[in-house]
Amino acid sequence: MKNTFEISCPPVFDLSLSLDCGQAFRWTYNNGKWHGVAYGKHLEIEQIDDKLIFNCSAEDYELIWKNYFDLDCDYEKIVSVYDDEYLKTAVKEYNGIRILRQEPWEALCSFIISQNNNIPRIKGIVERLCECFGEGESGKKSFPSAQKLATLTVDDLAPLRAGFRAKYIVDAANKVANNEVDFAKINANPIEFGREELQKIKGVGAKVAECTLLYGFHKIEAFPIDVWVKRIMSEMYPNGLPECTKGTEGIAQQYLFHWRRMQNR
Residue 1: pLDDT band by 50, 70, 90 thresholds? Predict the structure, then answer.
């Protein structure tokens, strides 16, 4: 049975910023609530002032959503040491962004799809992937497993309209399903191992690997570099990120990425 219950938001938490800052692609906003699917479960959630209101069972909250939203992590402590002027501005303007703890396979597949793509189109491809091959009722289907997608061909993925990315999805599914790319070892080993392991997959370069490590394996020292981050590094940090970000470069990146991207709107 589902219940609606609320918790107090931890410090440095903004639901909309966290769900709509380019790190996850299965969340939509409708009638004042966010709707999404993760770990095979559908969730409706809203933030009202300092309260988070979940429409799910207490068991699902404890087993899935508490961890998914990284609610036990002290982000206040993390961002408090960001003493660089640009980071302080980004954190002040977009206070509350958190790195979600997504399923590694979903993160990998989603960021393969993200290559040379924009967010609305990424969301469309991901949603068609779930509708065609996920399990559950329409609109709330699970993200299809690597094992499921490994049974398919590039032609089977034609309805996704994923273009050149389809062959990369199939290759990734096969390598993950047969443990040629070993998620357990990526999780257990230092980040350098994961960087090498993920790039065994066709079409997975440094950026997709870093995104997967950050958003799927929660290795918060990962530092994805895309066009926006290249501009940030060129304009603001030609000598590299400041020392205050060491060990949490991925969190700093997410603030800087969102801040710089929104400046252009």
Answer: very low
